Amino acid sequence: MISEKRAKKYGFWKYFEEIAAIPHGSGNTKQISNYLVDFAKEKGLKYVQEKCGNVIIFSPASEGREKEESVILQGHMDMVAVKESGVEKDLETEGLELFMEKGFVGARGTSLGGDDGIALAYALSIMADPKASHPAIEAVFTVNEEVGMDGAQALDASKLSGKTMINLDNEKEGELIVGCSGGAGIECVIPVEWKSRTANAYEIKVSGLKGGHSGTEINEGRVSAITIIARFLAQLKLVRTRIIDIQAGEKDNAIAKSGMIKFICSAPKSDVIETVNFYADVLKEEMATREPGLHFDFSVLGEGIEVTALHKADSERIMDVLLALPQGVREMSADIPGLVETSDNIGIVSLKEDALHVSASVRSSHESARQALCDKIIAVASLGGGTCTQGKEYPGWEFEKDSPLLSHVVKNYKEFYGTEPVVKTIHAGLECGIFAGKIKKLDCISMGPDVNDIHTVNERLSVASAEKTYDFLLKLLESEIIKEK
Q1: DSSP 8-state symbol, 217
Q2: CA angle (435, 440, 444) in 5-degree steps
Q3: Structural domain harbouring 318
Q4: CATH at residue 17
Q5: Who has greater pLDDT, 457 or 36?
């Protein structure tokens, strides 16, 4: 895939190809963890492989730099493994098929895993290069970042001595991330009871929405399919509706882009059809700019058929809960223009035999605001007769304006690129927040090359950006990052 000449100049390409050949989707990281251990053994480097699969590799300082403090290079070893419909590759057991086209690296029919395979490849290449000049390196590779930052949560940070960390999990060259929101997950369960009856049955499918990441794209006005379903149910409540089924969303941290509801109505069929068509047109017109692809499929499942639906009171409770649950941006930062401070995303609703199950993701740069929003969701569910469990918490990472590392990186960036970098905090979560909570006075930034359309089959890694970012990382390590011990 990568030419021999290019791989010889930039050793990280060799490691990136080797990593891509190993199945390493979230929850399937044993092989990649062992690969990292084998690398350490081959190079004669000390290492730790934790029970959860995290790997730490210790690379000694280059000659003459032994007195400098250690630097932590950090990334995660799992990828979001998805494939195109019809692709027969088993991502649990088979590696990726890489290709290079028009200056980008991709994988045929699947996601690429540039997030965060490039971090592993960078760190391995630096530790393997006898010509690279650097202080002692503690390379930390975590598991299952994509499904809750489990590896970072489980990491025994007492094994690390470094107080300076470069996280390589950013997908935009020239952008330095210096802070992020904390978050929590909430699971709500609202018990229901069912009753068989004879009635006309209908289905509405919602599709064509943009969806997106509930951290990085929550401020773009993207509409959740769950919000649309809730609004539709509020209208259908007027024509004596009982719910048969609700299914919408795939992940708590993704804005739901599709969903469906099945229901029965005691109102005449003509009234139901008129209500649905009228409100579908209302929503399409209202959201024409934000969601031009919004599409509805309405069908009659049967007339006078026997179905099992929720009791009237349970249907109405579910309708009220879904309509009342908060969704989207709740507060913008008063200190940083354009930054979302607090938000929530109702990511999944699923009606099962026992109850309606709701999964939500809450984020905020202030722990108190995050908890207040969690409390609001819990209160709404409680008023609807349900219970909630709060979990999957991770801390925020507060911006340190006097960061010595940031000053060092900005200075070197201007020398290397001839321009100013973009320094920002984000509303999404990063492992840096967890590391900062485990290592007292940790100074860190997050950076990386351009990787487009991560977590999708269109994921592409820019070759030029990957190589230039690597050169810049070498420059950072070659210069003295922090004072001597």
Answers
A1: S
A2: 50
A3: 184-394
A4: 3.40.630.10
A5: 36
